[in-house]
Amino acid sequence: FCHNIEIKKKYEELLGSKVFCTGSFLSNNCPIIKSKKKYDILYISTFRKVDKDNLIRNGKITLNDYLDAEKNLVKNIYEFSKKYKKKLSILCTIKVDLKSHEKEFFYKILGKNKNWEFIDRKPGDYKSGYKILDQANVVTGIDSTLLYESFGRGNKTIFFDIRPSNKNLDATRHFAWPKKFPKSGPFWISSNKFNKIENILKKNINLNNNKWKKIKKKYADSLMQYDKNNKTFYRVVKNCLKV
Known about the structure:
Layout: H1 5-15, H2 25-28, E1 39-44, E2 56-58, E3 61-62, H3 63-83, E4 88-91, H4 96-110, E5 116-119, H5 127-133, E6 136-141, H6 145-152, E7 157-160, H7 167-172, E8 188-189, H8 194-205, H9 209-223, H10 231-242
Parallel strand pairs: 1-4, 1-6, 4-5, 6-7, 7-8
Antiparallel strand pairs: 2-3
């Protein structure tokens, strides 16, 4: 059981077995909430604490390079939110040991201003994150699984594929991997420049829901499915048990 049809192909090559696209087990187990939107722009943090050695991970790219890219992105989204009188909400990690470091990271970038906020997930309650996603007018981020889950749930979701890159990373770590899309599309870009970020945010925030549903339907097979209550999983398991 896997997230999308592109991952399905990979597993089939490796295993030679039947593979079913079901999306995320956890997301599927949390009903989609259709209520009034509470958050203007929700940013899903991918903060990770860097050890003192700042080890090189890919070629000459370090973890600090990854964080620097995220800093620039968050600054640009925040500038957009101020310009268009929106409030930026940052969804924190569920990992208790990282929270204080994460909050310090964002305070250094944005300061302690009133037009942005932290949104905490309840420890031990995996459903809380999905409930928050469903209350956002637009969900943004880099490459978190939660971002793909947001898309699968039908929320307006924008992917900023702005990590530092080299030949190896270009092939193995990019938006929609292993599917290879162009560098930019209706709801994703690979640029960290303000004008590009401004354009894609404006476009999607102002997009009506019917048009977004069409976009979601077009790309869901390649990104993330949503199988309410994991019906496919239960059906397959029941059939296996009958044998």
